[in-house]
């Protein structure tokens, strides 16, 4: 046997060995290096559980294992300052209440709450475009964002979420915040349009104070989040589609200095009903968990 | 040239196969979720046994002269008397002595002692007290004497006699001995009835409950308090199985909230409050004695059950297919209750703890050379007149109705009145008229609003 033939045989043998090893390592649901959170069986079981309960999954799920951490956020004071400075330039008058400050200028009332909520009310409303009801979503978005930018109230990291249109001509555009490519569903901006005019803008915008990489953990799978949601909601009386399932951050609104928020699976049902499943604990996130700040118990002797 | 390429390919394939073999052998394991419950061993206070969970709201002793002595938690004679009666009731069950039921009163008998038990004392099978008797919840224990015979009558909370226990002489004498050696400085109390109140105020007053007030002058110390020190780390571990999954919310007032989305724990410098609203939709099937044991476990587990803290109430309530027990504790100093806006309270059912709050204060131990101020309290007549005046000022349109006096007693109130932020327990009169509580500073009878209380 000459050396050339020996090399050729060895190449074929090692190529075969590498194919076998590659299959063992990388094959989906089986591979040792493919970090899969959802196996094909789990996927099938989840889909059949959803269908039995009248839920139908539209998007495909990311099956890889994902990790996340807590982030610390606070109300975005820079956004508030930006709005306030433009109001001062306009010569707005100021009045203070317990938990808010209100600025009034011609045709505009802006209330900034200590919780971080900013509410801009326009009276008699700003004309946006003719026949807004007939415009496409994309066209409305461009107009609304231009409107916000012109009034110095377009926050950073704004991402369009969805639009609601009612038969009586009311249109609401919903936005959420993105920080470092991570969606923050706790932040929201709403533009309310009626009869071709913008009447109100509400924004609850946050700033990232800190990330806590020491608490980086694997999150539950999307199938587990779906299973937990169905356990919470029970079977749907009518067939309903699940149109989105995404990983982001969410918490209730707190009148606090700063707070940590957990990663969540955001599950959007047809009709834009949103549910947030804590991606660490699997619990449905609710706003009513925190005890009241003061509780007056009865005094008895 | 081709041979060189072949050699290169072979070299690469050998290297790749070695790498993959290594990965297969030692590489990462398949994904495992790590957000699972993590149990950590923690050391907390041992729960009190059932025989120390229930104590009387007060013990009333008939004085030789007209009147009564009123003993409450924090009074050494109260502890000695109740301890004796409690042991006696426990021994009677074990020794299977005579326990009668039926018509229990004896004509002409003198009532020497009454213990009012709130929450009620459970007696009967498998319980520490009267374990041979049928189950009963006892609200009153009366000690009677007639012609050398002594016996206890146990009645339900609404005063229906349930059991009569004839006492052997040495047991009765042990109780009588404590009574005979009572601290001589005890204040004589009067029983208020509608006759005693007639003409005292310009309108009719009726007495709703048994009310006993000091007949003479009372001197009460103004106590300097300090809030309970909370071990935050330990507390966090008692409420959250895996506290790594709890996130922190820092409030503007310095308070800190921990929550995992399902339950929340708010910690301030002086108190904490826990809530798990999802558990509200549950049933409370635990029997009353088991619920008492649960109370003991809860308070011991979440901060401990210190001396002077008394279980005041344990009630079962339900609505809309839900049911829960609610328990409340109160601190006592020197025989007086300490009123505050946030007491210790727990709400629980079969699913677990729904709500828990705790805010406790303890007296500061002063150096020997310094003493607390002593307040001479106003008499009960002036206090009642002042309370009626506050009532009339608050409800100017209500000038005719008969007022109902529901309770009246001296107490301490945690009032934040010092600019240096020192917390004081002020002596107060607490008077309940027509369902409304009036708190008057015991010295000058100036009203203190509930909002003034910490």
Structure notes:
The complex is a heterodimer of chains A (301) and B (454). With 301 residues, chain A is of the alpha+beta class. Chain A is built from five helices and 15 strands. Chain A has helices at 3-26, 40-52, 77-89, 137-150, 222-233; strands at 55-57, 67-75, 93-96, 100-105, 108-113, 117-127, 158-165, 170-179, 182-194, 197-204, 206-218, 240-249, 256-261, 263-269, 273-278. In chain A, the strands form three sheets. Chain A has an eight-stranded antiparallel sheet with strand order 3-4-5-6-10-9-8-7, with helices on one face. Chain A is elongated. Chain B has 454 residues and is an alpha+beta fold. In chain B, 22% of the residues lie in helices and 36% in strands. In chain B, the strands form three sheets. Chain B has a 16-stranded mixed sheet that branches. Chain B has an eight-stranded antiparallel sheet with strand order 6-5-4-3-1-2-7-9. Chain B is elongated. Classes of the chains: A alpha+beta (301), B alpha+beta (454). Strand 13 of chain A pairs antiparallel with strand 12 of chain B.
